[in-house]
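Entry for the shared binder. Reason: the reviewer on the internal report wants the predicted structure included alongside the sequence.
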Amino acid sequence: MSIEDRILYEDNHLIIINKEPSEIVQGDKTGDVCLLDDVKAYIKVKCNKPGDVFLGLVHRIDRPVSGAVTFARTSKALSRMTVKIKNREFSKTYLAIVKNKPPKESDELEDFIIKNEAQNKSYIVSPETKGAKAAKLRYRVIGHSENFYLLEVELLTGRHHQIRCQLAHIGCPIKGDLKYGYPRSNPDGSICLHAKNVCFEHPTLKTQININAPLPKGMPWDAFNC
């Protein structure tokens, strides 16, 4: 699907894209084409820009995750959005599909997480562990099918692989997430975690932005009406 078909919001300051599963947000050692470069190319053509296009990444989501990704089209917007995220004035809500029913219908999880750089994986550790960072999220069960449960997850902090790690810790690894204990991968290499909603005050217009990203097509997402 083209970039134009995946634009959720666009103005002179911001652009929000619905990232596809397994699409990389920012260039890395793989050398694969990334969403950041694709959006730059789209803006360059649309606005007929002769030189380099400025595009700042406001936040990222993991490669196997789908959903809303926010970019800033000006340095002023990027700096203001960075402050909003630091001050927790930028809300992110995810949907996750898990096989096992969580211990509670809803709960707030508070753990300490440390990232293993070599493994590109996060672990829950004791609070006194050197380098450990507090990780908080809220979840609630909002649906179930014959085989799976659908969770709505609100991030309260933004740690590496936080949702994946914390849900696995309560016995609910996300479908397809081999790294965090799910027994089988998804055919396309994705995991069933979707950045459904972003909500924040516009950095210059001061209006409220509340954006929902359509779910990926196909099963098991199609089993849930959301």
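Summary line for the report: DSSP finds three helices and eleven strands in the chain.
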